[in-house]
């Protein structure tokens, strides 16, 4: 039996292929949007994995160091080390800011970590070049996505740092590359005021009559001294001993230390369910709109192609071709158009995904679901053209 759909496609293959390429680019955008969402979720999970923590101890009644501002005293980790089941505890600070290198600025998350090798909470798990931070000041380890190289000098607030190590896939939940610096330097960058502000605050404090009383000797000096110290961090990263129940230790810290504690599952729920929830809804809306536009394009193209061969369809009916065969021809053309478009879109998305500024994660499962959705969309879109074809009068084949 002659394949009517194949013969018709070969007859006008140029128009069919160009239409498939145009549809494919639109499908490629749809797959990329799904990949952007997957990348955002993966960035959030990578952030938690890279911290090396089992628990995050943060300021009470906050959502932790990633979703909300959090400040705890930097000596809290000592008391946590004495808690049952705690193997390691380390202070950490997070500050998203512009890092300057020469004449260019790079948006990055500056992470203050305690000095030490891999395995210490907060430290990069591995490096692609260089070494870990070993000195207490002015050394930095950067993610390669920041565009820095070994030996580069970068400026964070008032100080310059030398890049002594490079790592990969160390990013914030928003996809910004991380720059690791010593904890003391990070505390100064985040919590201390600039010199002019400190001088102005000292003048205001000294001029306050409440601090001029002889009954409070040394109070003024203590307040002035406190303005040049920074005893805060954003959180304490905690590692649990093997075999210890994480939730039991977390509840113990909440009860006795009056601090907010999040386990890995809870922190992942915050990052994915709250921090990127609005972005995921926006991407979902774009996916729905793109799917509707794609379906409309397929329906219009197939309907136009069908109208262009009304006389041929009338001839087929005149020689006794069944309506089922004619409907099958149109349906096959619609599905073929969708398959060509999907192949073009998948190839396009694979090629342009690496050059996107945000991480795009193209999963095989999304590709399979996308192909199924395209086929269903093409089947539904062909119904209008099938309806028009079945209404054709065979007499039109011999008409004028």
Into which percent range does the helicity of residues fall?
Answer: 40-55%
Q: Biggest β-sheet, characterized? A: 10 strands, mixed
Order of helices and strands: HHEHEHEEEEEEEHHHEEHEHHHHH
Q: Kindly state the mean pLDDT as a whole number?
A: 82
Total domain modules: 2
| % residues in beta strands | 15-25%
What is the rounded Rg? 31 Å
What would you call the structural class? alpha+beta
The end-to-end distance, rounded to whole angstroms, is 30 Å
Low-confidence region ranges: none
The helix count comes to 13
**Bulk shape:** elongated
Number of DSSP E strands:
12
Description of the structure:
It is elongated, with a radius of gyration of 31 Å. The longest helix is centred in the N-terminal third of the chain and has 39 residues, at 13-51. The chain has 400 residues and is an alpha+beta fold. The strands form 2 sheets. Strands 1, 3, 4, 5, 6, 7, 8, 9, 11 and 12 form a 10-stranded mixed β-sheet that branches. Strands 2-10 form a two-stranded antiparallel ribbon. It has helices at 4-11, 13-51, 64-67, 76-81, 183-191, 195-207, 219-226, 246-257, 264-275, 277-307, 310-318, 323-352, 364-390; strands spanning 55-58, 72-73, 86-101, 104-113, 129-130, 139-143, 153-156, 159-167, 178-182, 232-233, 235-240, 260-263. Strand 3 (86-101) and strand 4 (104-113) form a beta hairpin.
